[in-house]
Amino acid sequence: MTQTYLDQCLKDDLTVRWPDSAMPIKVYVAPFKWYEKSKQQESYAYNKMVLEALNLWSNISNGSIKFQLVQAVSQSQIDISWRRVDRKSLGHCEYLISPDSAMYSCEIKIGISDGLIHAQYNDFSEVEHTILHELGHALGLIGHSKGSTDIMYVPHQYGVTGLSKRDVETLRWLYKLPVGFNYQMAGQKYNLPPGFTIHDVIDAMLGGTSKAKPQSSSSKEEKKYREKPEILLEHHDILEQMGKFHMSTQNILKPPSDKNNA
Ligand SMILES: [Zn+2]
Predict the structure, then answer these.
(1) Would residue 210 count as lying in a domain?
(2) CA distance 91 to 70
């Protein structure tokens, strides 16, 4: 049984990711500017966290994902900047996808605590969690896991600062399958009984022998099955959208110590 949460990461039943031709993905990290001098002095640590998070996602991708840092936002495909954390969200990711489900632009905002609001979040490792989580969205993990030890789980779990086995498996399968993989169509090819999931399809691919080649044979047919060819602009903001695609913002529970900080 395949352990992923890809079923939570589909857009109109299709997978979403960067095409292989987009590698290396160009990343711009905005300068860290902060009001408090003590915080500003930590800028090196925050920038280092971004580099480590990029390396981690890249390292576990089996060579599928490569990043390249660029010096100007105008050259970037993923833009990472900093903001003061608010009560509702720790991080935020807005992305653009093409009609064929290819990711092509992302803007990530990482929340930093001033030590008053979400003081527990002031810990470096928790910011690291947010960076990893938002980068996960940026790579195409556009949903949330239901497993509390996964980096893509919400609400934010304190102490989870790395990628789980399921995070790794999900990302690897996302990049093993073609951009805009249509599991419904693939499942029909395998004659799976109605009600099958993308995991059933992956299992069929793994267990299949002569039939197990949907990647190479399906791209033309997939296009025929796509029902919504319009360009999709997703703006993920939990303040505006509480539905299926509220994936980019992490809820955290309001700690009791917080209530005086209006
Ligand atoms: Zn999220």
Answers:
(1) yes
(2) 22
**36 shares its domain with 143:** yes
- Let me know: does 125 contact 133? Beta carbons within 8 Å: no
Question: Are 23 and 67 in contact, with CB atoms under 8 Å apart?
Answer: no
Same domain, 72 and 118: yes
Asked whether residue 246 is assigned to any structural domain, the reply reads yes
Q: What is the domain range of residue 218?
A: 183-225
Q: What are the backbone dihedrals phi and psi of residue 26, each rounded to the nearest 5 degrees, phi first?
A: -90, 125
Centroid of ligand 1 to alpha carbon of 92 (angstroms):
7
Q: How far is the CA of 34 from the centre of ligand 1 (A)?
A: 24
Kindly give the distance from the C-alpha atom of residue 163 to the centroid of ligand 1, in angstroms, as a whole number: 14
Q: How far is the CA of 134 from the centre of ligand 1 (A)?
A: 6
Looking at the fold, whether 132 and 208 belong to one and the same domain comes out as no
List the chain pLDDT tens, one digit each, 262 residues: 668 999 999 999 999 999 999 999 999 999 988 777 777 778 888 999 999 999 999 999 999 999 999 999 999 999 999 988 877 778 999 999 999 999 999 999 998 887 766 667 778 888 999 999 999 999 999 999 999 999 999 888 888 889 999 999 999 999 999 999 999 999 999 999 999 999 999 999 888 643 344 444 444 433 433 333 322 233 333 223 322 233 333 433 333 333 333 3
Helix or strand (DSSP H, E) at 46? helix 43-60
Distance 141 CA to ligand 1 centre (A): 9
Claim to verify: residue 97 and residue 214 sit in the same structural domain: no
Contact 6, 199 (CB under 8 A): yes
Q: How many whole angstroms from 108 Cα to the centroid of ligand 1?
A: 11
Residues 128 and 196 both lie in one domain: no
Within this chain, do residues 19 and 123 fall inside the same structural domain, yes or no?
A: yes
